[in-house]
Amino acid sequence: xxxxxxxxxxxxxxxxxxxxxxxxxxxxxxxxxxxxxxxxxxxxxxxxxxxxxxxxxxxxxxxxxxxxxxxxxxxxxxxxxxxxxxxxxxxxxxxxxxxxxxxxxxxxxxxxxxxxxxxxxxxxxxxxxxxxxxxxxxxxxxxxxxxxxxxxxxxxxxxxxxxxxxxxxxxxxxxxxxxxxxxxxxxxxxxxxxxxxxxxxxxxxxxxxxxxxxxxxxxxxxxxxxxxxxxxxxxxxxxxxxxxxxxxxxxxxxxxxxxxxxxxxxxxxxxxxxxxxxxxxxxxxxxxxxxxxxxxxxxxxxxx
Length: 304
Prior knowledge:
The chain has 304 residues and is mainly α. The protein has 11 helices and no strands. α1 (9-17) packs antiparallel against α5 (76-105) and α1 (9-17) packs antiparallel against α11.
């Protein structure tokens, strides 16, 4: 295993910013389904607007008309506050967890060890940064000209005061249920693809792998993982965006299927598949690049 380092978080930070407008549109699409719409009668079970790219464009123009271009960046501050510690924790914990797993099990790296370490690292990073993720979703899902909260610290205080401290972790259960397979699959597919590429290039380390191949491996990992776990992502966003108690994750899952059909679980996936693999590819590739540079620097320091 390579030496982990928190600086790898900046790759995730850079990848996030280019996808921010698509994130806002997706959050607002989920935010449309509030407590009442999730439990409305069967005859009104279809969503107000089915998700299509033309309707997504209409949503984007509505956001621009109501809140200006700045509306697309609403909640971005919370995203920045979250993404750096999230990525630093996840990438660092992956190396630590996999190293500990291999030492105790006396085995070599394989897809199972990649999956287990990735799942545990994702769960750790998600739990640590979850209140900021909830805050980001609340802000991005707000449609009106005036922001829902007057700043991030006031938002945290208002949520704790009006909804209780537990509200900061509303939706954590489906998030963890979703992040375990998502992070596990992402790391397993990416690291396994790198192993295949190392064999293809006849190299014992991954420094011979071209950047475009790393990006392709990361994009494939993101595409497969996000598609497989998207229904859990939908449940999580609905619970985060609503100030009401929507009940258990399973109850909301069944309500979405009952009221909107199975397609309701995949609402917004088009935008996710447009931006998701790009972000994952950039994150993994940049993390690898920085780790290799840091390893070279570390080796040079030892030789001096």
